[in-house]
Protein backbone atom coordinates (compact mmCIF):
# COMPACT_ATOMS: atom_id res chain seq x y z
CA UNK A 1 0.00 0.00 0.00
CA UNK A 2 1.49 3.31 -1.06
CA UNK A 3 1.37 5.99 1.61
CA UNK A 4 -0.83 8.91 0.58
CA UNK A 5 1.14 12.16 0.67
CA UNK A 6 0.93 15.58 -0.96
CA UNK A 7 2.95 14.12 -3.83
CA UNK A 8 0.72 11.24 -4.90
CA UNK A 9 -2.70 12.27 -3.56
CA UNK A 10 -5.41 12.29 -6.24
CA UNK A 11 -7.19 15.67 -6.10
CA UNK A 12 -9.56 15.49 -9.06
CA UNK A 13 -12.12 12.67 -9.28
CA UNK A 14 -11.03 11.13 -5.97
CA UNK A 15 -13.31 8.17 -6.73
CA UNK A 16 -10.99 7.28 -9.61
CA UNK A 17 -7.90 7.08 -7.39
CA UNK A 18 -6.29 3.92 -6.02
CA UNK A 19 -3.27 3.46 -3.77
CA UNK A 20 -3.10 -0.32 -3.30
CA UNK A 21 -0.10 -2.23 -4.63
CA UNK A 22 -2.05 -4.89 -6.60
CA UNK A 23 -3.87 -2.22 -8.65
CA UNK A 24 -0.67 -0.22 -9.16
CA UNK A 25 1.42 -3.28 -10.07
CA UNK A 26 -1.17 -4.62 -12.50
CA UNK A 27 -1.25 -1.35 -14.46
CA UNK A 28 2.56 -1.22 -14.49
CA UNK A 29 2.82 -4.84 -15.62
CA UNK A 30 0.51 -4.31 -18.58
CA UNK A 31 2.66 -1.61 -20.22
CA UNK A 32 5.77 -1.83 -22.35
CA UNK A 33 6.78 1.84 -22.36
CA UNK A 34 6.84 4.23 -19.42
CA UNK A 35 7.36 7.98 -19.42
CA UNK A 36 10.24 8.99 -17.18
CA UNK A 37 10.33 12.53 -15.82
CA UNK A 38 13.28 14.28 -14.23
CA UNK A 39 14.57 17.80 -13.93
CA UNK A 40 17.94 19.16 -14.96
CA UNK A 41 18.68 22.81 -14.16
CA UNK A 42 14.97 23.60 -13.74
CA UNK A 43 14.11 22.06 -17.13
CA UNK A 44 11.77 19.05 -16.97
CA UNK A 45 12.40 16.15 -19.36
CA UNK A 46 9.90 13.39 -20.15
CA UNK A 47 11.50 10.46 -21.95
CA UNK A 48 9.79 7.26 -23.14
CA UNK A 49 11.64 4.13 -22.03
CA UNK A 50 11.19 0.37 -21.94
CA UNK A 51 10.94 -0.98 -18.41
CA UNK A 52 10.04 -3.93 -16.26
CA UNK A 53 8.81 -4.17 -12.69
CA UNK A 54 10.71 -6.21 -10.13
CA UNK A 55 8.97 -6.17 -6.76
CA UNK A 56 8.53 -2.54 -5.80
CA UNK A 57 11.09 -1.29 -8.30
CA UNK A 58 11.29 -0.67 -12.03
CA UNK A 59 14.35 -1.47 -14.10
CA UNK A 60 15.22 0.90 -16.93
CA UNK A 61 18.11 0.51 -19.32
CA UNK A 62 20.02 2.30 -22.02
CA UNK A 63 23.39 3.00 -23.54
CA UNK A 64 26.17 3.52 -20.98
CA UNK A 65 27.11 7.00 -22.15
CA UNK A 66 23.48 8.10 -22.31
CA UNK A 67 23.01 11.58 -20.84
CA UNK A 68 19.57 10.46 -19.71
CA UNK A 69 20.73 7.37 -17.84
CA UNK A 70 23.58 9.29 -16.19
CA UNK A 71 21.15 11.85 -14.82
CA UNK A 72 18.55 9.27 -13.84
CA UNK A 73 20.93 7.14 -11.82
CA UNK A 74 22.41 10.06 -9.90
CA UNK A 75 19.76 9.96 -7.16
CA UNK A 76 17.65 12.94 -8.31
CA UNK A 77 13.85 12.83 -7.84
CA UNK A 78 12.19 10.90 -10.65
CA UNK A 79 8.56 10.44 -11.68
CA UNK A 80 7.59 7.44 -13.82
CA UNK A 81 4.16 7.27 -15.44
CA UNK A 82 2.47 4.42 -17.29
CA UNK A 83 -0.83 4.99 -19.09
CA UNK A 84 -3.24 2.71 -20.95
CA UNK A 85 -5.93 4.22 -23.16
CA UNK A 86 -9.00 1.97 -23.00
CA UNK A 87 -11.68 3.87 -24.84
CA UNK A 88 -13.18 7.03 -26.26
CA UNK A 89 -16.19 8.09 -24.20
CA UNK A 90 -18.71 9.77 -26.48
CA UNK A 91 -21.37 11.72 -24.61
CA UNK A 92 -24.44 13.54 -25.86
CA UNK A 93 -22.76 16.83 -24.98
CA UNK A 94 -19.28 17.87 -26.06
CA UNK A 95 -18.59 18.82 -22.44
CA UNK A 96 -19.00 15.28 -21.12
CA UNK A 97 -16.77 13.58 -23.68
CA UNK A 98 -14.01 11.72 -21.91
CA UNK A 99 -11.44 8.96 -22.15
CA UNK A 100 -11.41 5.60 -20.44
CA UNK A 101 -7.91 4.93 -19.18
CA UNK A 102 -5.76 3.43 -16.44
CA UNK A 103 -2.60 5.15 -15.29
CA UNK A 104 0.02 4.99 -12.57
CA UNK A 105 2.16 7.91 -11.47
CA UNK A 106 5.10 6.73 -9.36
CA UNK A 107 7.60 8.85 -7.44
CA UNK A 108 11.01 7.78 -6.26
CA UNK A 109 14.69 7.84 -6.96
CA UNK A 110 16.87 5.73 -9.20
CA UNK A 111 20.36 4.35 -8.73
CA UNK A 112 22.80 2.81 -11.17
CA UNK A 113 23.00 -0.97 -11.00
CA UNK A 114 26.71 -1.76 -10.84
CA UNK A 115 26.65 -5.40 -9.72
CA UNK A 116 27.07 -7.56 -12.82
CA UNK A 117 24.79 -10.36 -11.57
CA UNK A 118 21.96 -7.92 -10.80
CA UNK A 119 22.53 -6.27 -14.17
CA UNK A 120 22.15 -9.61 -15.97
CA UNK A 121 19.01 -10.33 -13.94
CA UNK A 122 17.60 -6.87 -14.76
CA UNK A 123 18.21 -7.33 -18.49
CA UNK A 124 16.48 -10.73 -18.37
CA UNK A 125 13.57 -9.17 -16.47
CA UNK A 126 13.20 -6.37 -19.02
CA UNK A 127 13.44 -8.70 -22.04
CA UNK A 128 10.95 -11.16 -20.53
CA UNK A 129 8.56 -8.32 -19.77
CA UNK A 130 8.74 -6.97 -23.33
CA UNK A 131 8.65 -10.35 -25.04
CA UNK A 132 7.73 -13.21 -22.68
CA UNK A 133 9.68 -16.41 -23.29
CA UNK A 134 12.41 -14.84 -25.40
CA UNK A 135 15.25 -15.29 -22.93
CA UNK A 136 14.68 -19.05 -23.21
CA UNK A 137 15.37 -19.00 -26.96
CA UNK A 138 17.60 -16.00 -27.65
CA UNK A 139 21.32 -16.01 -26.95
CA UNK A 140 21.89 -14.70 -23.42
CA UNK A 141 23.79 -11.48 -22.87
CA UNK A 142 27.52 -11.86 -22.35
CA UNK A 143 29.30 -10.08 -19.52
CA UNK A 144 30.69 -7.68 -22.13
CA UNK A 145 27.20 -6.87 -23.36
CA UNK A 146 25.89 -6.36 -19.82
CA UNK A 147 28.82 -4.04 -19.10
CA UNK A 148 27.97 -2.14 -22.29
CA UNK A 149 24.47 -1.41 -20.98
CA UNK A 150 23.47 1.06 -18.30
CA UNK A 151 20.78 -0.21 -15.98
CA UNK A 152 19.04 1.87 -13.36
CA UNK A 153 16.77 0.65 -10.62
CA UNK A 154 13.90 3.02 -9.79
CA UNK A 155 12.55 2.32 -6.32
CA UNK A 156 8.89 3.31 -5.98
CA UNK A 157 8.52 5.47 -2.88
CA UNK A 158 4.94 6.59 -3.47
CA UNK A 159 2.50 5.92 -6.26
CA UNK A 160 -1.11 6.34 -7.21
CA UNK A 161 -3.30 4.80 -9.84
CA UNK A 162 -6.15 6.54 -11.58
CA UNK A 163 -8.72 4.92 -13.82
CA UNK A 164 -11.96 5.71 -15.62
CA UNK A 165 -14.14 3.04 -17.15
CA UNK A 166 -17.72 2.66 -18.26
CA UNK A 167 -20.21 4.68 -20.31
CA UNK A 168 -20.52 8.47 -20.60
CA UNK A 169 -22.28 10.39 -17.84
CA UNK A 170 -24.44 13.10 -19.37
CA UNK A 171 -26.51 15.76 -17.64
CA UNK A 172 -30.14 14.70 -17.11
CA UNK A 173 -31.31 17.50 -19.41
CA UNK A 174 -29.30 16.03 -22.30
CA UNK A 175 -30.61 12.47 -22.04
CA UNK A 176 -33.36 13.00 -24.59
CA UNK A 177 -31.09 14.42 -27.29
CA UNK A 178 -30.98 12.42 -30.51
CA UNK A 179 -27.24 11.89 -30.19
CA UNK A 180 -25.52 8.53 -30.08
CA UNK A 181 -23.69 7.98 -26.80
CA UNK A 182 -21.39 5.20 -25.72
CA UNK A 183 -17.82 4.01 -25.74
CA UNK A 184 -15.41 3.13 -28.53
CA UNK A 185 -13.15 0.54 -26.91
CA UNK A 186 -9.45 0.92 -27.67
CA UNK A 187 -6.88 -1.82 -27.29
CA UNK A 188 -3.21 -2.29 -28.03
CA UNK A 189 -2.90 -5.38 -30.19
CA UNK A 190 -0.09 -7.58 -31.39
CA UNK A 191 -0.24 -8.65 -35.03
CA UNK A 192 1.18 -11.51 -37.09
CA UNK A 193 4.95 -11.84 -36.48
CA UNK A 194 7.03 -10.58 -39.42
CA UNK A 195 10.18 -12.68 -39.93
CA UNK A 196 13.41 -10.74 -40.43
CA UNK A 197 14.35 -10.64 -44.16
CA UNK A 198 17.65 -12.36 -43.29
CA UNK A 199 16.09 -15.06 -41.10
CA UNK A 200 17.79 -18.44 -41.54
CA UNK A 201 15.40 -20.73 -43.47
CA UNK A 202 13.42 -23.36 -41.57
CA UNK A 203 12.94 -21.46 -38.32
CA UNK A 204 9.35 -20.76 -37.42
CA UNK A 205 8.05 -18.40 -34.76
CA UNK A 206 7.29 -20.46 -31.66
CA UNK B 1 11.85 23.30 -38.37
CA UNK B 2 12.68 23.11 -34.69
CA UNK B 3 16.02 24.69 -33.81
CA UNK B 4 18.47 22.14 -32.47
CA UNK B 5 19.69 23.12 -29.01
CA UNK B 6 21.13 21.38 -25.98
CA UNK B 7 17.56 20.76 -24.84
CA UNK B 8 16.19 18.84 -27.81
CA UNK B 9 19.32 17.44 -29.45
CA UNK B 10 19.20 13.65 -29.93
CA UNK B 11 22.42 12.19 -28.48
CA UNK B 12 21.85 8.46 -28.80
CA UNK B 13 21.14 6.91 -32.21
CA UNK B 14 21.41 10.25 -34.00
CA UNK B 15 20.19 8.52 -37.18
CA UNK B 16 16.83 8.04 -35.46
CA UNK B 17 16.36 11.74 -34.73
CA UNK B 18 14.23 14.21 -36.69
CA UNK B 19 13.66 17.93 -36.21
CA UNK B 20 11.33 18.83 -39.09
CA UNK B 21 7.82 20.07 -38.34
CA UNK B 22 5.95 17.61 -40.63
CA UNK B 23 7.49 14.59 -38.88
CA UNK B 24 6.92 16.10 -35.43
CA UNK B 25 3.33 17.17 -36.20
CA UNK B 26 2.39 13.80 -37.70
CA UNK B 27 3.52 11.94 -34.58
CA UNK B 28 1.67 14.41 -32.36
CA UNK B 29 -1.49 14.17 -34.46
CA UNK B 30 -1.63 10.39 -34.23
CA UNK B 31 -1.83 10.30 -30.41
CA UNK B 32 -4.73 10.80 -28.03
CA UNK B 33 -2.80 11.03 -24.75
CA UNK B 34 0.38 12.98 -24.08
CA UNK B 35 2.61 12.89 -21.01
CA UNK B 36 3.08 16.32 -19.51
CA UNK B 37 6.13 16.97 -17.37
CA UNK B 38 6.69 19.90 -15.04
CA UNK B 39 8.55 20.56 -11.83
CA UNK B 40 7.17 21.87 -8.55
CA UNK B 41 9.67 22.53 -5.75
CA UNK B 42 12.29 20.29 -7.40
CA UNK B 43 9.82 17.40 -7.72
CA UNK B 44 9.09 16.32 -11.31
CA UNK B 45 5.52 15.30 -12.19
CA UNK B 46 4.51 13.39 -15.33
CA UNK B 47 0.76 13.46 -15.92
CA UNK B 48 -1.15 11.82 -18.79
CA UNK B 49 -3.54 14.24 -20.50
CA UNK B 50 -5.75 14.43 -23.57
CA UNK B 51 -4.57 17.05 -26.05
CA UNK B 52 -4.87 18.37 -29.55
CA UNK B 53 -2.43 20.23 -31.76
CA UNK B 54 -3.32 23.63 -33.19
CA UNK B 55 -0.54 24.97 -35.40
CA UNK B 56 2.62 24.95 -33.32
CA UNK B 57 0.76 24.65 -30.03
CA UNK B 58 -1.00 21.94 -28.05
CA UNK B 59 -4.21 22.55 -26.17
CA UNK B 60 -4.66 20.75 -22.86
CA UNK B 61 -7.71 20.95 -20.64
CA UNK B 62 -8.98 20.00 -17.22
CA UNK B 63 -11.04 21.04 -14.24
CA UNK B 64 -10.66 24.70 -13.28
CA UNK B 65 -9.48 24.05 -9.72
CA UNK B 66 -7.02 21.42 -10.89
CA UNK B 67 -3.65 21.77 -9.12
CA UNK B 68 -2.05 20.47 -12.30
CA UNK B 69 -3.65 22.98 -14.65
CA UNK B 70 -2.89 25.87 -12.28
CA UNK B 71 0.79 24.97 -12.26
CA UNK B 72 0.92 24.27 -15.98
CA UNK B 73 -0.56 27.59 -17.01
CA UNK B 74 1.71 29.64 -14.76
CA UNK B 75 4.49 29.90 -17.33
CA UNK B 76 6.88 27.32 -15.86
CA UNK B 77 8.99 25.17 -18.23
CA UNK B 78 6.97 22.22 -19.51
CA UNK B 79 7.92 19.10 -21.47
CA UNK B 80 5.25 17.24 -23.42
CA UNK B 81 5.96 13.78 -24.83
CA UNK B 82 3.89 11.63 -27.17
CA UNK B 83 4.92 8.04 -27.90
CA UNK B 84 3.60 5.34 -30.21
CA UNK B 85 4.73 1.75 -29.74
CA UNK B 86 4.86 0.08 -33.17
CA UNK B 87 6.45 -3.28 -32.56
CA UNK B 88 8.51 -5.69 -30.50
CA UNK B 89 11.86 -6.28 -32.17
CA UNK B 90 12.98 -9.83 -31.46
CA UNK B 91 16.65 -10.44 -32.18
CA UNK B 92 18.71 -13.61 -32.10
CA UNK B 93 20.54 -12.24 -29.06
CA UNK B 94 18.87 -10.85 -25.93
CA UNK B 95 21.17 -7.82 -26.23
CA UNK B 96 19.75 -6.71 -29.59
CA UNK B 97 16.08 -6.93 -28.62
CA UNK B 98 14.44 -3.56 -29.13
CA UNK B 99 11.17 -1.71 -29.67
CA UNK B 100 9.90 -0.04 -32.80
CA UNK B 101 8.40 3.30 -31.84
CA UNK B 102 7.84 6.91 -32.81
CA UNK B 103 8.03 9.66 -30.22
CA UNK B 104 8.12 13.43 -29.91
CA UNK B 105 9.60 15.31 -26.97
CA UNK B 106 8.50 18.96 -27.01
CA UNK B 107 9.72 21.78 -24.79
CA UNK B 108 7.96 25.04 -24.14
CA UNK B 109 5.74 26.97 -21.79
CA UNK B 110 2.00 26.99 -21.31
CA UNK B 111 -0.40 29.82 -20.58
CA UNK B 112 -4.01 29.81 -19.43
CA UNK B 113 -6.52 30.51 -22.19
CA UNK B 114 -8.82 33.18 -20.77
CA UNK B 115 -10.57 34.38 -23.93
CA UNK B 116 -13.93 32.63 -24.12
CA UNK B 117 -13.95 32.36 -27.91
CA UNK B 118 -10.48 30.77 -27.97
CA UNK B 119 -11.56 28.46 -25.15
CA UNK B 120 -14.57 27.26 -27.16
CA UNK B 121 -12.34 26.76 -30.18
CA UNK B 122 -9.80 24.83 -28.10
CA UNK B 123 -12.49 22.53 -26.69
CA UNK B 124 -13.79 21.86 -30.20
CA UNK B 125 -10.24 21.17 -31.39
CA UNK B 126 -9.63 18.70 -28.54
CA UNK B 127 -12.97 16.91 -28.99
CA UNK B 128 -12.50 16.66 -32.76
CA UNK B 129 -9.01 15.30 -32.28
CA UNK B 130 -10.17 12.64 -29.82
CA UNK B 131 -13.31 11.70 -31.71
CA UNK B 132 -13.43 13.15 -35.23
CA UNK B 133 -16.87 14.37 -36.29
CA UNK B 134 -18.40 14.44 -32.79
CA UNK B 135 -18.73 18.21 -32.52
CA UNK B 136 -21.09 18.06 -35.51
CA UNK B 137 -23.49 15.75 -33.65
CA UNK B 138 -23.01 16.35 -29.92
CA UNK B 139 -24.50 19.34 -28.14
CA UNK B 140 -21.95 22.18 -28.21
CA UNK B 141 -20.46 23.47 -24.97
CA UNK B 142 -22.30 26.38 -23.39
CA UNK B 143 -20.42 29.44 -22.17
CA UNK B 144 -20.98 28.15 -18.63
CA UNK B 145 -19.37 24.83 -19.49
CA UNK B 146 -16.44 26.53 -21.19
CA UNK B 147 -15.96 28.73 -18.13
CA UNK B 148 -16.06 25.58 -15.98
CA UNK B 149 -13.08 24.16 -17.88
CA UNK B 150 -9.46 25.18 -17.63
CA UNK B 151 -7.66 25.27 -20.95
CA UNK B 152 -3.95 25.82 -21.37
CA UNK B 153 -2.09 26.47 -24.56
CA UNK B 154 1.37 24.91 -24.73
CA UNK B 155 3.52 26.66 -27.31
CA UNK B 156 6.21 24.37 -28.73
CA UNK B 157 9.56 26.16 -28.51
CA UNK B 158 11.77 23.22 -29.43
CA UNK B 159 10.98 19.63 -30.23
CA UNK B 160 12.56 16.49 -31.56
CA UNK B 161 11.17 13.26 -32.93
CA UNK B 162 12.81 9.88 -32.55
CA UNK B 163 11.78 6.71 -34.32
CA UNK B 164 12.94 3.16 -34.84
CA UNK B 165 11.41 0.88 -37.45
CA UNK B 166 12.33 -2.28 -39.29
CA UNK B 167 13.79 -5.67 -38.41
CA UNK B 168 16.30 -6.54 -35.67
CA UNK B 169 19.98 -5.89 -36.27
CA UNK B 170 22.02 -8.76 -34.88
CA UNK B 171 25.76 -9.16 -34.71
CA UNK B 172 27.20 -11.05 -37.72
CA UNK B 173 28.37 -13.85 -35.40
CA UNK B 174 24.78 -14.50 -34.29
CA UNK B 175 23.21 -14.76 -37.75
CA UNK B 176 23.56 -18.53 -37.90
CA UNK B 177 21.83 -19.20 -34.56
CA UNK B 178 18.66 -21.28 -34.75
CA UNK B 179 16.60 -18.49 -33.21
CA UNK B 180 13.57 -16.86 -34.79
CA UNK B 181 14.11 -13.16 -35.42
CA UNK B 182 11.71 -10.53 -36.61
CA UNK B 183 9.12 -8.02 -35.49
CA UNK B 184 5.77 -8.40 -33.75
CA UNK B 185 3.83 -5.38 -35.02
CA UNK B 186 1.80 -3.55 -32.40
CA UNK B 187 -1.10 -1.24 -33.15
CA UNK B 188 -3.68 0.71 -31.19
CA UNK B 189 -7.09 -0.33 -32.48
CA UNK B 190 -10.63 0.90 -32.09
CA UNK B 191 -13.28 -1.78 -31.58
CA UNK B 192 -17.03 -2.03 -32.13
CA UNK B 193 -18.80 0.97 -30.51
CA UNK B 194 -20.64 0.02 -27.31
CA UNK B 195 -23.89 1.99 -26.90
CA UNK B 196 -24.51 3.52 -23.47
CA UNK B 197 -26.98 1.38 -21.47
CA UNK B 198 -29.29 4.41 -21.23
CA UNK B 199 -29.09 5.32 -24.92
CA UNK B 200 -32.41 6.51 -26.32
CA UNK B 201 -33.80 3.75 -28.60
CA UNK B 202 -33.52 4.15 -32.33
CA UNK B 203 -30.22 6.02 -32.46
CA UNK B 204 -27.46 4.23 -34.30
CA UNK B 205 -23.76 5.06 -34.28
CA UNK B 206 -23.04 7.08 -37.41
From TrEMBL, chains A, B:
**Gene3D superfamilies xref list:** Electron Transport, Fmn-binding Protein, Chain A (2.30.110.10)
The record's annotation in Pfam families points to: Pyridox_ox_2
Organism domain of life: Bacteria
Q: Which portions of this protein are annotated as coiled-coil regions?
A: none
Q: What protein is this chain from?
A: Pyridoxamine 5'-phosphate oxidase family protein
Amino acid sequence: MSEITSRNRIHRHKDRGHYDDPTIYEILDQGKICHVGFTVEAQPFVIPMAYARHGNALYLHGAPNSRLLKQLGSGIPVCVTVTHLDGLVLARSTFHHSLNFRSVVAFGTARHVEDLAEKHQALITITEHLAPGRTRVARAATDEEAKATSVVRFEIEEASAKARSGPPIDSPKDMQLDVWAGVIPIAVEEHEPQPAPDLKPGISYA
